[in-house]
Amino acid sequence: MKRLRDWWSNPWGRPRALVAVTWLYIAWSIVPIAIAILFSFNAGKSRTVWQGFSTRWYWGDPTQSVLHDPALRSALEQSLKLAALDMAVSVPLGVALALGLTRWHGPGARPVNVLMLFPLVTPEIVMAVSLLLVFVTLYGIQLGTTAQLLGQVTFSVSYVVVIVRGRLLSIGKEYEEAATDLGASRVAALRLVLLPLLAPAIFASLMVVFALSIDDFVVTDYLSSDASTQTVPIQIYSSVRGTTTPALNALATVIVVATLLAVAFAYVVHRRFTAGDEAARGSALREIAAFDV
Question: What residue numbers bound the domain in which 126 lies?
Fold first, then answer.
């Protein structure tokens, strides 16, 4: 018994208990999602009893599949549209803010940096109610796609700033200063030297904003107007308590797959950028040397 206890605790070797707990947690997290995905391929309407494999709920059913059900298709389109718009607005704005906050050393720099982190720590329900009151009462913005986009941009920008600032601090100011010392303008140094070095952080920001947008429920729900502006999370929440079919599972599976593909793509690109980081710095040095004419 003592030998078994010593083998399990193993204080000077591999932490077996920690490994077991980790795998139990992974199973606890993934198994329910795997079951939900499995039943999206169920041939029958049951979401609990397996009745055979079929792609009926994706495109096979002429009225109730994700492809043919207007409500499900509209929710998917709205989610993807908001994600694309959020990336197009949040990432350039976040990159500009990261550059400004990193280069700004005035008396107001510290308070602004603290305020930029507020969306990361503010409860989402508080932010959603605040944005609803500000948009509708103060600015008179109509609820719908525009309000949803502004709401998502509000909390997405902070993530972009944190990611890009981390990359900026690791790069330092030497490359940019070297380019300007050799005669490059601020714009040329930014475009030809700094932005290529920031490419990994910018791409990571795009993927993070995509995942945040496509998964957001509270803010997007509060700022939606009608059924035409419902996203996938809203559609799932509003439908799950009623009589549903595995088409709802199929809709959720599409979002899960899209998110996993984005994460996998981000990982591959990050590995490639990481492997080519020295090459990128060498390219930046060549661009800097080109200004010395």
Answer: 69-290
